Amino acid sequence: MTQSNLPLAGIRVIDFSRVLAGPYCTALLGDLGAEVIKIEPPGGDDYRAVGPFVDGKSGLFGAMNRNKQSIVIDLKTEAGLDLARSLCARADVAVENFRPGVADKLGIGYQALRALNPSLVYASVSGFGQTGPESHRPAYDIILQAMCGLMDATGAPDGTPTLLGEAVSDAVSGLFASWGVLAALLAREKTGQGTHVDVSMFDATLSLSATLVARYAATGLAPQRVGNRHPSSAPFGAYRASDGFYVVAVLNNKLFQALTDAIGRPDMAQDPRFADDQTRCRFEAELRAGLEAWSASHSVAEVNRLLSAAGIPVAPIRNVKEALESEHAAHRGLLTEVREPDGGAVRLPSQPVKFSGYGSNRVTPAPALGQHTEAILGELGIGPAHTERLRALGALGAVLPQVSKTEQQHA
Questions:
Q1: What span, in angstroms and rounded, lies between the C-alpha atoms of 172 and 208?
Q2: Among residues 301, 309, 327, 308, which one has the least CA distance to residue 248?
């Protein structure tokens, strides 16, 4: 498959970002054919040093930087800054996730690059946005989960606020950034002008919390933790079987009747405590006791077989390995095995949307630090002699050797 078979073929992205939110944005664009040039400092993206490691390479870096080219540029040198600006002058998109003001100080802020390339779409991903009283604050995923109400809404009612098991604030910020870039590119088709896309992790995390925000907007009350159940429907949550846990999702009386019939307790459907969703929520503990009295004598597999046959939405609680190794995940192509230049194999994710008019997503390994420096410079008309002059000026930094797995373990 060639790049021309993908929706974003011909779009060039200059990626100044590092770690997770920004690189995830550009990885999603690269999945669909955009040419992504990752500009790294001489020491490389910090994520290169974050495990887990396989053959000395970071699995997290590999996943978030698939489908990219890498060039090392020291932006603190005049020659390096000029080189980066030259790349942006020929690009469609630039993405950065420095703290507000840092890109301007480096000379690669939106206004500086817009003067060179008015059609450039420039995306900034930061903890709290480019404006506002908190915009100066540094941010990590846990900070945003705490400040946006996710932790407070997660966990048992009588327990402590709980961190979600995924870096959701980082991931959703990268997702919204890619969405913003695509919207800006579409608008550019009409106006010919680029724009500054300001993505705040704070804003993105609250936007992800769609039902929490909707409940507050409607009632003026902060949603309370309810544990492994739905706050306004029952039975709708996680329940215990003889060998593990399963979930069911019952949203109406018809499904509740089918459930009670399936478990041999039609009397529960006639119980006034369980007459409708509202009363079932009020007496959720009693409802849970009745359901688990049945499932305690069945395995998770048996529960799923019996309730599925009755048309009840039901599922086992899997771990990530079980989900990704499932037949359905394989059919949907959620992981793709690719060969690295050294001959090793690695499995990488890709964006999940399918397009009937295009081929499969592009999936190529993340680059070694500075791997494509000469090729990228060649596209700018810079030959070997000029490249060596840039090295002498410090523009390309001193590429550090990759750290071996043994060295990482003893660091």
A1: 7
A2: 308
- CATH classification at residue 304: 3.30.1540.10
**Residue 288: both structure tokens together:** 């849970």
Taking residue 220's Cβ as centre, other Cβ atoms within 10 Å add up to 7
Active site residue 230: yes
**Predicted confidence (pLDDT) per residue in 268-288, tens digit:** 999 999 999 999 999 999 999
Same domain for 58 and 195, yes or no, is yes
The catalytic position among 230, 298, 372, 386 is 230
Quote the CA–CA distance of 315 and 239 in Å, as a whole number.
Answer: 11
CB count within 10 Å of CB 115 equals: 11
What tokens does 71 get?
A: 């060039």
**Which residues make Cβ contacts (< 8 Å) with residue 207, sequence separation at least 6?**
172, 176, 213
pTM of the predicted protein model? 0.91
Query: pLDDT tens for residues 223-247?
Result: 999 888 888 889 999 999 999 999 9
Verify that 189 and 119 share a domain, yes or no: yes
pLDDT in tens, 89-130: 999 999 999 999 999 999 999 999 999 999 999 999 999 999
Position 354 in a domain: yes
